[in-house]
Every structure is written in structure tokens, then in C-alpha cells.
Design brief:
- It holds the Pfam family ABC_tran.
- By secondary structure, the chain is α/β, with parallel strands linked by helices.
- The chain has a single domain, classed as Rossmann fold.
- The protein has helices at about 60-65, 90-100, 115-125, 130-145, 160-170, 190-205, and strands at about 15-25, 30-45, 45-50, 75-80, 100-105, 175-180, 210-215, 225-230, 235-240.
- The chain is globular, with a radius of gyration of 18 Å.
- Bound molecules: adenosine-5'-diphosphate and magnesium ion (MG).
């Protein structure tokens, strides 16, 4: 387990609470409404899965929740910040830097950096001194099983290994909010399983509120809660008991 671990809010307490989110995009001369009044909340220590078909508004929802894309209506209360979107761009950026980790389908790694440098970079942005950043980067990479790949660049790593670097990068700053957008969809079953288990651990062991967006119903097994979204609306919201030993099988 990562020695840098701090525990966030008490497991089960609210980490993020959004009400009435509406987002419209202009296409040509018309607007399409991609979020149609979405209420959403997620708790510390839990994996909340947002499931829905392609185009249903999942990525837009993550962007609105995490301070990346301003909704047209509604509000987001996150951690100790009331109405996140009512703050200045600088304050919102700082909120994201301090509290949010992101994992995307496409890994988003820097081609010229080795694994350790990928992770150190975000810590240095946060003002962590170099030696400590290196120590924490190595610890995070060891936690995801990449202790033997510290000096390798993305082009010499498999897809599963690249996604584990992205997870180490997100976990190294021990974010209270961890957003994963289709984190397994570029991976085979075996690597997808490694990734979803690491996200599960981020919730259980680090106390993060993990918000995982996917269109793969097999990931439900690891979730505390499954929210279905379709055409910009929440269809249902169910609590369940996660099975940390579930298997994904191969594609
Ligand atoms: N910047 C944008 N401009 C116009 N339309 C967009 C933009 N971003 C997303 N959309 C549209 O909004 C809808 C929902 O997109 P998205 O949130 O990415 O869905 P999902 O992640 O569930 O696949 C899609 O129809 C998409 O084409
Ligand atoms: Mg998406």
C-alpha cells in the first residue's frame, strides 16, 4: 500500500453533490441538450459507476463534475467547495489540481517521458519538492505493479502497463476524487481486470470517491453503486455489494 496514503472524508460521507445539471452544445444553428437536468452524488470510499451507451452524456457529466466544462445550469458542491462553478477559473483549476485524479481511455501519457517522470510531473505541478516527488512516484508505480518498469517510456510498454502508469499518476497525489472515463475500453480482459481492481482499491484503501464511467456492464461487479444514464437523463440508481474478486474474462 502506498505509504503516502492519507484518508479523505469518512467512508460513506458525501464527496460530491450536483443538482440540475444542464449542458447544451451548439451544432450549426441548433442546440443539442446533452445533460437534461442531472442530479448526481458520490461518496468517499465508494466506487460509483456511471453506465450508459455511447453519446449518452457520460463524459460531459464527468467534465461538469470535475471543473473541466461549465454546465449551462445547475450546481456542483464538491468536498468543501460550495457551488464550484461560481468560483474563478483560477480557483477551479486549483481545486482540480489539489483534489482530482483523472484516468482516460487513451492514457494521455507524454511520449518522451519514462514512467517515473510521468508521475513526478503532476506532483511537481503541485509544488512537491523533486526528491519527494521521485519517492512518491516510485511508491505509486510499485503499488500498481510497475516497480520493474520505472525507466521505460510509453512506446516500450503494453496498453495495460500504460494504463497502470496513468493510474499511478492519478493515485500519487492521493486525490479525494478520482474520475475514470472508459478506463478499460482500450484493454483486453486481463488488463481491464487489473485496472478495475486498482480503481476499486483506490476507493476502499485510499478512501477516494471513485467515479467510473463506462459502457461495459461487466464492470458493475466492482461497484458500490450503478447509475444508468441515457440521452442525458439518469434512468436509475442502484446500490449493490461490490465483489472485489470478480473476474472480467477476456474479450
Ligand atoms: N464539444 C461538443 N460540441 C458538440 N457536441 C458535443 C460536444 N461534446 C459532446 N457532444 C455531443 O454530446 C453528446 C454526448 O457526448 P458525451 O458526453 O461525450 O457522451 P458519452 O461519453 O456518453 O459517449 C454526443 O452526442 C456528442 O456528440
Ligand atoms: Mg465518453
Amino acid at each position: 500500500m502506498n505509504p503516502n496514503t492519507v484518508t479523505h472524508g469518512r467512508a460513506g460521507t458525501s464527496a460530491i453533490d450536483a443538482k440540475g445539471l444542464v449542458k447544451r452544445f451548439k451544432t450549426g444553428r441548433t442546440f443539442i441538450e446533452v445533460l437534461k437536468g442531472v442530479d448526481f452524488d458520490a461518496r468517499h470510499g465508494e466506487m460509483t459507476m456511471v453506465m450508459g451507451p455511447s453519446g449518452s452524456g457520460k463524459s460531459t457529466l464527468v467534465a461538469a463534475l470535475s471543473g473541466l466544462l461549465k454546465p449551462d445550469e445547475g450546481r456542483v458542491d464538491a468536498l468543501d467547495v460550495d457551488d464550484l462553478w461560481d468560483h474563478s477559473a483560477g480557483r477551479i483549476d486549483k481545486f482540480r489540481l489539489d483534489n482530482c485524479g483523472f484516468i482516460f481511455q487513451g492514457f494521455n501519457l507524454f511520449p518522451a517521458m519514462n514512467a517515473t517522470q510521468q508521475v513526478m510531473t503532476v506532483l511537481k505541478y503541485q509544488g512537491v519538492p523533486k526528491d519527494e516527488a521521485r519517492r512518491r512516484a516510485v511508491a505509486a508505480l510499485e503499488e500498481v505493479g510497475l516497480g520493474a518498469r520505472l525507466n521505460q517510456r510509453p512506446d516500450s510498454l503494453s496498453g495495460g502497463e500504460k494504463q497502470r502508469i496513468a493510474i499511478a499518476r492519478a493515485l500519487a497525489k492521493d486525490p479525494a476524487l478520482l474520475f475514470a472515463d472508459e478506463p478499460t475500453s482500450a484493454l483486453d480482459g486481463e488488463n481491464g481486470q487489473v485496472v478495475i481492481r486498482l480503481l476499486r482499491r483506490a476507493a476502499t484503501e485510499h478512501g477516494a470517491a471513485v467515479i467510473c464511467v463506462t459502457h461495459d456492464p461487466r464492470l458493475e461487479a466492482w461497484a458500490d453503486r450503478v447509475i444508468h444514464i441515457e440521452d442525458g437523463r439518469i434512468l436509475d440508481d442502484q446500490r449493490r455489494t461490490p465483489d472485489p474478486n470478480a473476474t472480467l474474462g477476456s474479450h
